[in-house]
Amino acid sequence: MKKLALTLALIMAAAFAGCSSAPSSSAPSSAPSSSAPASEPASEPASEPSSTSAAAGGVSLSSSSLEEIMDAVLASVPEDQLPALMPADLNGGAKYTPLTEENSEYNLGVTRDRYAEGIAAEAAMSSVAHSVCLVRANSAEEAEQLAADIEAGADPRKWICVEAESKIVDWSGDVVILIMTGADNADKIHAAFTALAE
Q1: Where are the alpha helices (DSSP H) in 21-83?
Q2: Interior CA angle at 18 toward 15 and 20, to 5°?
Q3: pTM over 0.85, yes/no
Q4: In what order do the strands lie in the sheet with 131-137?
Q5: CB burial readout 37-75, b (16+ within 10 A) else e
């Protein structure tokens, strides 16, 4: 019993230490956001050329599962620059966190009934501001409005202790992406998403 209490105390201390000692790498709240307009479709050219579509191995937004799309966009970030993601045993055995009625508003700022399905790639440590969410809208016609609502509702400070440097919301067809992470990684992930839409 004492070992259990000591273990729990150490875990709580580590969590609080991570929260209080996290480097302040987030942009000040007065700094402009580097969000892409929600109404701007992903099929427009990215600001920098990308060869991601060739590396994506035939993944496309229209015919691939959300898991395959997530794998492809996260592959655009070198492994040593991507934070450790929530392990499958904490995701009910799934590789990525399924978006549910309980966690949809926390992750996206919209309720779960607004889209057909969704997943999130969340950092395993709450002191790391990293979240990439993919949702499939109920239809391609609803995707633009869904993206606009996610842009308005998603909170880049949802971790409380840290804030994402960059928040990008984009859509193509019936797929909407929300990226909240460091600026460099956000740009790479967004470019990969854009390349899949081409």
Answers
A1: 52-55, 66-74
A2: 110
A3: no
A4: 97-98, 115-122, 131-137, 175-181, 166-172
A5: ebeebbeeebeeebebbeebeebbbeebebebbbbbbbb
Cβ(195)–Cβ(52) below 8 Å: yes
How is residue 150 written in tokens? 């996610």
**Cα 119 to Cα 45: distance, rounded to the nearest angstrom:** 25
Could you list the beta-strand ranges (E) of the chain: 97-98, 115-122, 131-137, 166-172, 175-181
Sequence letter at residue 33: S
Between the alpha carbon of residue 150 and those of residues 35, 44, 63, 122, 135, the distances in Å are 12, 20, 23, 17, 10
CA 143 to chain centre: 17
SS3 90: helix
Which of 194, 56, 167 minimizes the C-alpha distance to 109?
167
CB 182 within 8 A of CB 54: no
pLDDT in tens, 62-118: 899 999 999 999 999 999 999 999 888 888 889 999 999 999 999 999 999 999 999
